[in-house]
Amino acid sequence: MLGSSPVTAFLPSTDPVRSRAFYEGLLGLTVTASDGFALVLEGAGTTIRVTRVETFTPQPFTALGWVVQDIARVMSQLAEQSVEFVVFEGMGQDADGVWTAPGGHRIAWFKDPDANLLSLTQYA
């Protein structure tokens, strides 16, 4: 029923200006709208709506992720921009913070300015 309809992802933010600097300025997404209620971004055909909220509690799971061809290269580029990668106790991530899933996919996590958990995945 909805398989051919465009998808919009939603993320909360307490500071849309800070979110815009991160998602547009640092990650390179394109802003398509900003109206005081939400910042709307485009990323490779997916719409991401960063919605203004007064308060929220970040969730412990991944809220949004990107599939990349070369996770080491993208992590290096993000680290150059002061992005810190999350290491989870007991996950068995390597020294760079990359976890290799049983099927061989490589995954790394980082947070946006509101502590939404984001990920990079390089498929095996």
TrEMBL record:
Concerning Gene3D superfamilies, the annotation shows:
2,3-Dihydroxybiphenyl 1,2-Dioxygenase, domain 1
**Record domain VOC: where:** 3-123
State the source organism's domain of life. Answer: Bacteria
**What is the name attached to this protein's record?**
VOC family protein
